[in-house]
Specification:
The protein is globular. It is built from 1 helix and 14 strands, in the order H-E-E-E-E-E-E-E-E-E-E-E-E-E-E. It has one domain (about 25-175). About 5% of the residues lie in helices and about 40% in strands. The longest helix has 13 residues, at about 1-15. By secondary structure, it is mainly β.
């Protein structure tokens, strides 16, 4: 039974945005913090209920407050509807000036697609402990239809030298995607 749960959990973690059930619960951790800028609700217009629109969401700093490196295992969209993760990346802090918080295109209006080349893929992105510099940025390429929403983002991660997967506290940034904002 434990092996079946472990396989189910690993399968779930390999798929971004999967939903956990009581049988595959992950321990909560406080080593990485999202939404260090506080709570917010962002809006990006998504025109059609029948076809998906590419959306960039780059409003979440990944603040590693532990003393160990953290490896990102997966990204989860909490209380979401009509939206899915196409790609999850970690951008260096310098990309804050280039990427929009949210936009109805990928990787964002006026952002060259080559900007994505310097980002780390999730799963596997490594977040060092926070120093004096700004933390890296979580960048999500989403596919959404009209009236999509994401109430929060959660990060599943491991710390250096450990195979224990922990889940961050939910972010405080929500995104609504109606026909008009």
């Amino acid at each position: 039974m434990r092996l079946a749960r472990a396989i189910a959990l690993l399968t779930c973690l390999a798929v971004s945005g999967c939903t956990a059930t009581a049988s595959d619960a992950v321990e909560r951790g406080d080593d990485i913090r999202l939404s260090s800028g506080g709570a917010a609700e962002l809006c990006v217009p998504v025109g059609s209920a029948s076809s998906e629109t590419d959306v960039v969401f780059a409003a979440e700093p990944l603040d590693n407050v532990s003393d160990e490196d953290i490896r990102i295992v997966s990204v989860r969209l909490s209380k979401s509807a009509r939206v899915r993760v196409v790609k999850a990346l970690v951008a260096p802090p310098t990309m804050r000036e280039v990427l929009p918080l949210v936009d109805d295109s990928w990787p964002g209006s006026g952002v060259p697609t080559s900007a994505v080349d310097g980002m780390e893929q999730i799963p596997g992105a490594l977040i060092p402990p926070r120093g004096e510099e700004e933390p890296p940025l979580l960048v999500l390429h989403l596919a959404a239809t009209k009236d999509a929403r994401v109430s929060a983002v959660e990060i599943d991660y491991t710390q250096a030298g450990s195979d224990v997967v922990r889940r961050s506290q939910p972010s405080a940034v929500a995104v609504r995607m109606p026909a008009r904002c």
